[in-house]
Amino acid sequence: MYLVVEQLLNGLQFGLLLFLLAAGLTLVFGIMDFVNLAHGSLYMMGAYFAATFVAWTGSFVLGALMALGATLLLGIVLEYVALRHLYGRDHLDQVLATFGLILFFNDAVRLIWGPAGLALPLPAWLTVPVQIIPGVYYPAYRLMIIVVALAVAAMLYLVVMRTRVGMLIRAGASNREMIGALGINIKLLFTLVFGLGAALAGLAGLMQAPILTVQIGMGENILILAFVIIVIGGIGSIRGAFMAAVFVGIIDTMGRAFLPDLLRKVLSGAAASTAAPALSSMLIYLLMAIILVLRPEGLFPAAKR
Amino acid sequence: MMPKLNVSNAVAALLCAALVLLPVYSAVTGNIFILTLFTRIAIYALAAASLNLIMGYGGMMSFGHAAYLGIGGYAVGILAAEGIGSGFIQWPVALAVSALFALLIGALSLRTRGVYFIMITLAFAQMAYYVASALSRYGGDDGLTVYKRSDFAGLINLSDRNQFYYLCLACLFGGLYLIWRIVNSRFGLVVQGVRSNEQRMQAIGFHANRYRLVCFVIAGTICGLAGALLANNTDFVSPAVMYWTRSGDLMVMVILGGMGSLFGPVVGAIVYLLLEELLSQFTEYSGLILGPVLLLIVLFARGGIMGLLGRMSRG
User: Fold this and answer.
1) Domains of chain A, residue spans
2) pLDDT of residue B4
């Protein structure tokens, strides 16, 4: 029972982390109609920045904040220098260009930080286990990820639904030309949204960094998961991304934790130990394929243009 | 029909001549490396050409095309590991399994359009990747060594550098010829018509998705052949050939060379792989240059290299 609670929390934590990544992706995709494969690179850069700045300053919080700022800045520069020229172009052109950026970032990281991975050690106050319900302990750091991600999600919701900028973002998602014609500086808005997306990706990267090692290519696998989420959730829908992310996080984690035992009950030992890892890795993709076959526009399609 | 004489066709013709004469150059100069490099290029060019058939002519943006490279490769590798060394069995199996896989995922994927199609093909390729990683009997994550290349009963010796190169080249030219014939046939014209306007083609009585599906299966089968060649070339097959970045590589080759142009993917494969090879000789960090080059090509050379040549020939 405790194991189930723990794995559920792990799934929630992973899902929320995925949401941070997917939120930026779905905003950029939904509003600018821009497929950004380099989003995973921003996630990786967030983690590398954090590892570096934390080592420099000696403070986890300060280093994390600096890394967040650095990723935001990187996103804005990237948008300003290169990506804004690709809006309105074919999706394939965008795929090609941002694929090039992945190659660039991977080798840039290798040049600057070397091919070996980095570790981002946690401060002592985040390593203690916390008793969440009597008898169940959970690592404080993972709990902090859940809290921070939920806070960011709430803030994002408030910004998008309750502020003027958010109104413009929503308007941009439903009709780009129109809000441009109404005299809104759409270029600035796009840069802002891209920067926001980059910062969210960076946040996801730097929070994940202490759990996994910081390494080259860390953004590639998780980028695909984020794409899966925005496709399941419906492109451009933050609410859909949130629900899909939590859903995917929990399914993925629970699958990895319990599928092997479950299969062992049905299949022979050898067959189960072969099938389990493949099946649990495939689960998410299987899910997406089934959803897309049944609902070709995702579960929560954003309003029609 | 006779191809017109213009810059792009002239480049294509020169390219073919150069590819055919390459072993002579290699023998004269003793440069073996260039022959092995171009063997690899020919195989990837075949894979990219098959992707171009669905992407460029069919308008189906598959982001999982590398799956067939792996499937074709594993068909050869697994049969070889089980003691069936004959290419007359291995290769037809590779083609059949690729076709079957394409039929299955095509039938499901073609229910979706646009970005959703990109993502669902990607999902299926990732599934194939994870299945291959789980084949612990055949190497799992580490991949499978193919100890003996396909045996064609003395007809052709795949371990001979020149013979294998010409086999790859023949497969490439054969594939291109097939694609050329398909594109200009009634079937191909319907597929291209569906790409431009699906509703209209439906309205005049064509079952759009059936044409699409057949086209998808043909492309997958051709790519499966490239996979069988690749496994023979590297004497090795691993899940990594199916990873999504490899599908991305294939897409890059097609777009770089020029989508919807017969020779575009060949040019794209040559330029992309040569650039990668050359850069890696100068620097360990080839991505630092290759990445921005891709970006610049997208920004300033629409329609890829063949598109650029086409504009040059029109002045």
Assistant:
1) 11-147+194-294
2) 66
